[in-house]
Amino acid sequence: MCHSTDSRPPALENPGEVAQDGMLELTSADGTAFSAFQAIPAEPNGVNIVILPDIRGTHPYYQALANRFAQAGYTTAAIDYYGRTAGVGVRDDQFDWKQYLPSVQPDEVAADVKAAAEHLTKFNTGPVFTVGFCFGGGQSWRLSASDLGVTGVIGFYGLPKLVNDVVDDISAPLLLLLAGSDVATSQEEFDAFAASLDKAGKTYDMHVYEGAPHSFFDAAYDEWQEACDDAWSRMVGFIEKHSAKVPA
């Protein structure tokens, strides 16, 4: 797993107010009820974010992350992957994700992201970006090849193997934020993924944080605070750049 239940994302220097937050139950197009955590900013900036967690689902790190995004003005929801198998609920240390993860299918993840995005557009009709971590990072990048109409996709230390079969269909720009000392994916795999994107002529930005461990985007890692700040800055820049291209 990436982030434990006591991990928390880096704090913002000047956080805004969150108008409302909390767990909710959404329904996918196939009728599946699944859990999500929403965070609605008091002063929205016009952009929607759907967070795709690591293999743990909607555990506390991603609830806190949704609030961080809302504090920055983004209308945000973090989704859970296990509505079809484990039902709705918060994922804590007792949740046995290992028995359910093999059943998670990319098309079902896309359907749940679509439901979350549609929910967010009730508050804000602006563009939608996805942000994922590890397993969710690969799923986020993969959504660039979907028909959801996402404006951009972001992944932290994602899994290229979840995307390699759809590279030719990628349409939305990608942001790859990678750990130089990732134990889940080798740098060679990331380099091969970048080469395949180059060969296919796809738009992407990639940054490797040399020496950083898998799951470095964590308030507990004081030595990686600069990397965390830089990653946040790159996310904001990526979102602003590609939001500006969306017709008003």
TrEMBL record:
Residues 34-242 form the Dienelactone hydrolase domain. GO terms for molecular function: hydrolase activity. Keywords: Hydrolase. InterPro entries: AB_hydrolase_fold, Dienelactn_hydro, Dienelactone_hydrolase-like. This is Dienelactone hydrolase. It comes from Amycolatopsis rifamycinica.
